[in-house]
Amino acid sequence: MDVHTAQDVTPDGTFSGYASLFEVPDLGGDIIQRGAFAASLGRRGAGRVRMLWQHDAAQPLGQWLDIREDARGLRVRGKLNLAVQRARELQALMAQKAVDGLSIGFHAVRASRDGRSGLRRLLHVDLWEISLVTFPMQPAARVMDTRGDRTLEQGLLASIRRMSGALQGAASG
Q1: Shortest CA distance to 86 belongs to which of 165, 13, 168, 37?
Q2: pLDDT digits 0-9 by tens, 55-88
Q3: Is the predicted pLDDT of residue 126 greater than 70, yes or no?
Q4: In terms of DSSP H, where are the helices of the chain?
Q5: Which DSSP category does 142 fall into?
């Protein structure tokens, strides 16, 4: 079991993770295709994509330092603004892993729907914001590293183990 303590969170509020995973259906039936964010990120860059709490535009939390597509998905690195009370609260909650979800706010520019499965494949999206959330639409979209000494892959495996354990507990209870 992966145990996290308050020292896991960097004192300056920096963290990283995956805001979206490619080719993995979310709970709403959307699948993001590799390359779907490229045009938006090229136009906007990380600095103009907002960091919010629960997709609420009235609750900005900090700034995204780096947003990029890699082979797995949309990898992000951000920094909470610790002058903001909600950001300080979230830093403490992230240290406990009480909050570790990430979720994207976007406009679908180009998409197609699979007639058999009903899934919507997002081919080109305009990324507006990435939020810290309690329950992400894509369950594996998570904050993976708040310390900087773990790889994102190790963090992803730890998240999968936590989700598997929770599912097994729910199934047996």
Answers
A1: 13
A2: 999 999 999 999 999 999 999 999 999 999 999 9
A3: yes
A4: 38-44, 85-95, 152-172
A5: B
Domain-embedded: residue 137: yes
Which amino acid makes up residue 82?
Answer: L
Q: Which tokens sit at 119?
A: 């899934």
Structural domain range at position 115? 6-172
Eight-state DSSP code of residue 119: P
What is the number of domains present in the chain? 1
* pLDDT level of residue 144 (50, 70, 90 thresholds): confident
Inside any domain, residue 47? yes
Q: Tokens 């180009």 identify what position? A: 110
Residue-level pLDDT at 157: 60
Q: Would you state the structure tokens that stand for residue 24, as one six-digit string?
A: 């993995």
Give the whole-angstrom CA distance, residue 103 versus residue 121: 17
Q: In degrees, to the nearest 5, what angle opens at C-alpha 35 toward C-alphas 118 and 105?
A: 65
